[in-house]
TrEMBL record:
SUPFAM superfamilies associated with the record: PEBP-like
Organism per entry: Lunasporangiospora selenospora
UniProt xrefs under Pfam families: PBP
InterPro entries, sorted: PEBP, PEBP-like_sf, PEBP_euk
The organism's place on the tree of life at top rank: Eukaryota
Protein name: PEBP-like protein
Length: 366
């Protein structure tokens, strides 16, 4: 522990690698940080002095930067001014994070899962953890399994989206997650019988202010027999969902449920379906609410049309896969109250056989 603290005291923030949340932190909420005693190790004591001095310098820089920001916001609106404001905000955020990132108590809390996302330092550390551990897996899965570009153009997620379908639904807990959670790795196979009820949606974002998002669950793999291709089916659509770094559990309170939750039901005879949850930022950087007429929205609505019509920008996603099993028959009968379809490949026509199944004659009388 001493070696880690000492190194943190002299390490450049630009090269700092935040600790990951470890599974050993199962009882983290009950644990309390105990600082090592001072006066025992002179090197440790000196490291703490370096950390404290660095924090004082950075706090002074932050004060000056905030004065610049205040003056800039009073200037006449322009594209240049807006860009400068965003740059200053990002600089202030990083300085706030760097001023605390080497604090041994902050490091201990992050490692043990005691994360306060209202603090810049924890948002910064969680963001780095997401970029390093989660994002590569999500991008690999959506690329390998063609969620992009089948469902939407290539993009880089900036938030972590996780679903909880309840106990026993998750085959594998993602790296960095609480081992007692029901979250699953992006692209996992889930059983249809475990997803008949709407999941809890957990979104880790890194902006302190509240923004509005639209959340959609879509299946891009429903058979379109008439056109001999596939079509999208919208399983769930919620608009005007408030999300911030400290408000990460999706609630329908204040939001608009446009399409109620439709349980996934991959039809018999089809290959696996990619049930994809998309989280899209609403217009004006998430500041604006949108209006949707429920009576005009069908389950055939595509993601492309949804985003184009309401100026939505997808910021995060996750997906799970399913194939038909006997529970799908029960879902059709008891929940959907529909006759269950069954699909198969078209019978291959042999050009050498006639309509009776006999070999065609080589020659015929004219």
């Amino acid at each position: 522990m001493f070696t880690r603290i000492l190194r943190a005291g002299i390490r450049s923030p630009s090269t700092f690698r935040a600790f990951s949340v470890q599974s050993s932190a199962r009882n983290a909420t009950e644990a309390t940080y105990k600082a090592p005693a001072l006066g025992v190790n002179k090197t440790y004591d000196e490291a703490l002095k370096v950390i404290a001095e660095d924090k004082i310098r950075r706090l002074a820089d932050i004060k000056a930067l905030r004065t610049q920001l205040e003056q800039l916001t009073k200037a006449s609106p322009s594209a240049t001014r807006d860009a400068d404001i965003e740059t200053l905000k990002e600089t202030i955020f990083k300085q706030e994070a760097y001023s605390e990132i080497n604090d041994p108590e902050i490091q201990w809390k992050f490692k043990n899962g005691q994360v306060d996302m209202s603090k810049a330092v924890f948002r910064y550390m969680k963001g780095k953890q997401f970029t390093r551990e989660t994002l590569p897996i999500v991008q690999q899965r959506i690329t390998q399994m063609n969620v992009t570009p089948d469902l939407l153009p290539n993009f880089t997620p900036t938030m972590n989206v996780q679903l909880d379908f309840g106990a026993g639904s998750s085959p594998k807990v993602p790296a960095g997650s609480d081992p007692s959670s029901n979250f699953f790795e992006t692209g996992s196979f889930l059983l249809p019988g475990k997803t008949t009820q709407a999941p809890k949606v957990h979104i880790t974002s890194f902006h302190p202010e509240t923004k509005y998002y639209t959340i959609a669950l879509v299946d891009p793999d429903m058979p379109d027999v008439e056109n001999e291709t596939y079509k999208q089916q919208m399983h769930w659509l919620i608009a005007n969902v408030p999300i911030s770094a400290t408000q990460n559990e999706v609630t329908t309170e204040g939001a608009d449920i446009i399409l109620s939750y439709l349980p996934p039901h991959p039809p018999k005879g089809t290959e696996y379906h990619r049930y994809t949850v998309l989280v899209a930022e609403q217009p004006n950087g998430g500041q604006d609410k949108i209006q949707m007429d429920q009576s005009q929205v069908s389950r055939d609505l595509t993601v492309g049309d949804l985003c184009a019509e309401h100026q939505l920008s997808v910021k995060g996603l996750t997906f799970f896969r399913q194939v038909w099993d006997k529970d799908v028959s029960r879902i059709y009968k008891d929940i959907l109250k529909q006759d269950e379809p069954a699909y198969g490949r078209p019978v291959k026509v042999d050009a050498l056989l006639d309509e009776t199944g006999q070999m065609k004659k080589k020659y015929v009388n004219l």
